[in-house]
Amino acid sequence: MAAPPLLTLQGIALTFGGTPLLSGADLALAPGDRTCLVGRNGSGKSTLLKVAAGLVEPDKGVRFLQPGTTVRYLAQEPDFSGHATTLSFVEAGMGPGDELYRARYLLESLGLTGEEDPSRLSGGESRRAALAQALAPEPDILLLDEPTNHLDLPAIEWLEAELKGSRSALVLISHDRRFLEALSRSTVWLDRGTTRRLDQGFSAFEGWRDQVFEEEERDRHKLDRKIAAEEDWLRYGVTARRKRNVKRLAGLHELRRQAREHRGPVGAATLTVSETEASGALVVEARDVAKSYGERPIVRDLSLRIARRDRLGIVGANGTGKTTLVNLLTGRLPPDSGEVKVGANVTLNLLDQRRSALDPERTVADVLTGGGSDTVQVGGQSRHVIGYMKDFLFSPEQARTPVGVLSGGERNRLLLARALAEAGNLLVLDEPTNDLDLETLDLLQEMLGDYAGTLILVSHDRDFLDRVVDTVLVSEGEGRWIAYAGGYSDMVAQRGVGVQARGVVAPKGTGKDAGKNPAKPAARPDARKRLGFNEQHELKTLPARMKALEGNRAKLRAALDDPTLYARDPARFEAISRTLATTEADLAGAEERWLELEMMREELEG
After folding, report:
1. What is the topology classification, in CATH, of domain 282-347+423-522?
2. CATH 3.40.50.300 fits 7-204, yes or no
3. Which helix (H) or strand (E) segment is 548 a member of?
């Protein structure tokens, strides 16, 4: 017998101003469910999630939560007031029975220490702290709105693994296809105010959605034909009994009302990119390029050739220097040593993902036109700003809307619109997929496929990289960058491992550099015949160290299992929790080091 739902939403209706945002939305969540909530930008996904969390009261409909069920919602803008550190913020969201050590464990896994001052956090750090607070109590229900935003690839893959092992029922909103495919078992589609449910994961969604649209289009044609037939009868039909005629005329009015009120699928963005004359065959050539900041190498001994129409993806953990590398390759930053040559007739077109570059006081029209005009130059042709805005799903009324009140998705579409209007033949996109809906991502992919120029793409979206690029340049740590042919999945297959957190050196694999545009790799230490003395000693002693750490971890967990410890001695409870977090981190580091050395030994001896 199936378990009863933990959370039920029925007939949820909500209107903000004119057109209803929600007009009959349903959602049911049972224990262990993994549901992705999908829909266009502005369709009301975040609002429906807030209704589910109890943060927004609907105009109509019923929300039922099983008594005793715990719910955690990932806040887009967390409230840090009253908290001196990120650790105290995360711990404040936990209950008496929750394991406090998880707060520090999650913060450290997400790249924070727990000692940060919340008032000085960046947008990305705030997002990570909010994610840690949502995950820490291990609630019955987790409601996550774009949890991968501002996370780098190592953090996204860590979060994916963490959620796979979670016992919480999940509702996920995300633009990351790979993330949704890995975690979802059912799909709820919010479209034109109502919901449809598919008892399959996201991988089956797009085919199902297209089938629904085709059926709607057939029904629409049938309705139009029926209206035409009734209008023909009204004009030319033989007069019959008055009552029958009145009834049939009323039926025609009803058909016309249905046609008038029918809401078709939300329009799609129309993306085009302005291009200048073609560049030379060689766009960028880097020879033995190096760049450091103080003692920290960002790029070391990099040699790379980028030809016309190449699609180069750059991936790496946050802090590895991806933006610095892009600036070096495009000639915007001089190297410490080596040489970068930018080819003939190369015109740079840059999408700057720093939303701070958008003045919040300027209007949408002013951002696109530069102010003082109502036209935009696109591909050498003058277009009215309203028409160009419609291509990017902005309404005419938003022309005078200040940038500061736009949503994250709208700001990103505005950045795209401005960048793609500028002429160029070398297009540099830095995280273009943030906050875009899946349909707009499809159109962006198609536009990049038709683009006649050269593309450099910085992204954490694994699926988008697979679809768009033909070479991936990945950080190997300590300033080394190596190119691999193909997309992200091809890079993982050649390299043997995905992108790792900054400071973690990838195991030596058998992958080869991209044949088309090979980067010059640093000399491999594995050219020797055997491990060094210190490495042999480390490999020999690590199993004993791991066993000792496992024993310590078991003792610490046993101490925390005492239900009276926190009430008797809160200071000791917190000290044990901190020690446990440190022990687990040390154990994970020892296990990773042992695996690295063992793989190195097998490769050398094999």
Report:
1. Rossmann fold (3.40.50)
2. yes
3. helix 533-560
